[in-house]
Fold this protein.
Amino acid sequence: VAESIHIPQSHDRETVYVALLPQIKSLFEGESNIIANAANMVAALKEAFGFFWIGCYFVLENELVLGPFQGPIACTRIQLGRGVCGTAWKNNETIVVPDVDLFPGHIACSSLSRSEIVVPIRDKKKTIFGVLDVDSKSLNDFSSIDKIYLEKICELLIEKKGD
Ligand code: SME
């Protein structure tokens, strides 16, 4: 059982992601339940980067429903095409929003959130069944580095039931 993860003392996000990726992979290898794995995934990322809000939403009966997260309480349900999460789901693509005030229809769960990234979570058949949402109190906090590594991490988070 993994008791802790090792996070390098670096201000370079890529360095931290590179160290984190194999540790998250081995966390997932020891557990088949997707909710448990999503919970540890967001905890590890929160611990490593101190994100203001990070969490998953999962598709349930044609809505996104709040899953494991770290941070202040959040909206529980998001419709297809609504906000950044609902748009990432609809378009089946990662969305980086440098300034949430400039994103039409942004859902402000917290007025403190200024920028965000939303990454699809897909199953083995590449069907989207959830999203990872990361919110920051700073403008323009997410780059292509976050996109690349958060997409890799979400690719590891696949439903292992029935393997
Ligand atoms: N920012 C999201 C809503 C979810 S919360 O911020 C946790 C959006 O517009 O999709």
Notes: The pocket of methionine sulfoxide is lined by residues 53, 74-75, 78, 83-85, 106-107, 109, 113, 116, 133, 135 (CB under 6 Å). The chain has a mean pLDDT of 93. The radius of gyration is 15 Å. The chain is about 35% helix and 25% strand.
